[in-house]
Amino acid sequence: MHDARAAARARQDIVRLAHTRADSFTLRQAVAERMRRWVDFDAYCWWTTDPATMFLTTSVAEWEKFPSASCLQIHRNEYLEQDFNKFRDLARAKEPAALLARATEGHPERSNRYQQLMWPDRMTAELRSAQTVDGACWGALALYRAADRPGFDEHDVRLLADLAPHLAHGLRTALLADAIEGAAGPDTSGLIILGPEGRVAAVTAGAARWLRHLRDAVGGRLPEHRLSDAIYAVASVARGLNEGPGPARLPRARVRVETGEWLLVHAARLERDGDATDEVAVMIEQARPTQIAPVLVRAYGLSQRETDVVKAVLHGLSTEEIAHSLHLSPYTVQDYLKSVFHKVGVSSRRELVAHVFTEQHWPQYGDGEAALTADGWYQQPTEPA
Fold first, then answer.
1. Total of domains in the chain
2. Which residues contact 339 (CB under 8 A, 6 or more apart)?
3. MF terms per GO, please (predicted)?
């Protein structure tokens, strides 16, 4: 739909939706419904992402249109295989939307994703977009057209690129749509053993509880046999890790369930008699405040300097001490605090500490969350020269 007036109305409607305080599932469904009238597609898959790792965490998709595809295949392709227009690459690109046809110079069959996930269900055109704001990616969207339709064009690319920061804002805000104080359950960790094809081989009682919460987090729309995207993501990366000297860095992702609790999901490939097996152990546990701090800070949209001020407040520094440590005037510190209070929705330092980090301070965050390398891992901080 390239009519200028109709496109302008559709864009305005989508931007308005993106700036409401809907949960991420409602937001994605509503935006996709309106976007379909604008861009015109036959199927879509839309994920939230953990901005620290770029792992896909939850999905809203028309899976019935991809009967040949599996979640395990999708995650293997995204994290383990060479391919075109990876979401982590789009998140860093100047234009965060791209066509598979253009990336492959008109030969989409060069793409493993096309051969394994699209063509078997007769989807031949793909348009991808990463939703990034303030340097953090909060969503990943893929639109598809069937073989009997013309492909997407550059006009469609520009439309999605234009919408990307608005959609990122909406997904970021959705993390805080509900009260941060969830109905906390027992602080129980759980273990899942996944076989070669991603099927559950064994599960502990604690993991079964968290699996129910993860299923409820998507409105019960996950079939009983399907696990959360966050689990498939970390398992796929763990399975593909190359052996090397020293301990391996465990792939991990953070995801929030409907109770308001944050879970930390991480995985490792199992060994037997010193040899790697095809089984993966996935651990699920309740995330501690120091583990979810980076996500929460970004969710509130704090700038780097505001983050520095919040860190100092959580360490108990006075206004004068903050000013001295950050080389600012006390008046500037007060201005930053006012901005933080407005974004978080509190009116005092005490409320700030109680609302965001109710259990402990933020000693592990240091000078900010580590940057990401090209393959999605945390980049280790370098020592100053």
1. 3
2. 306
3. DNA binding
Q: Is there a domain that residue 40 lies in?
A: yes
Query: For 279, which DSSP code?
Result: E
Question: Closest by alpha carbon to 69, among 126, 119, 144?
Answer: 119
Whether 293 is in a domain gets the answer no
Query: Is 25 inside any structural domain?
Result: yes
In a domain, 264, yes or no: yes
Q: pTM higher than 0.85, yes or no?
A: no
Structure tokens at 258: 């409907």
**Do residues 13 and 132 share a domain?**
yes
Question: Three-class SS of residue 146?
Answer: strand
Q: Tens place of pLDDT for every residue, the chain, 385 residues?
A: 456 777 777 778 888 888 776 788 888 999 999 888 888 899 999 998 877 667 788 888 888 888 887 777 888 888 778 899 999 889 989 999 999 999 999 999 999 999 999 999 999 999 999 999 888 889 999 999 999 999 999 999 999 999 999 999 888 877 655 333 333 444 567 889 998 878 888 888 888 888 877 765 554 455 555 788 888 888 888 887 654 443 455 788 878 776 667 788 888 888 777 677 888 999 888 776 555 556 666 667 888 888 888 877 765 678 999 999 899 999 999 999 999 888 887 888 877 765 554 333 222 323 333 332 222 223 333 333 3
| End-of-domain residue from the set 239, 254, 287 | 287
Q: At 27, which amino acid appears?
A: L
Cα(46)–Cα(29) distance, rounded to whole angstroms?
A: 9
Q: How far apart are CA 322 and CA 339, in angstroms?
A: 16
- Of 150, 174, 198, the residue at which a domain comes to its end is 174
> What is d(CA 31, CA 190) in angstroms, rounded to the nearest whole number?
35
Distance CA 306, CA 304 (A): 5
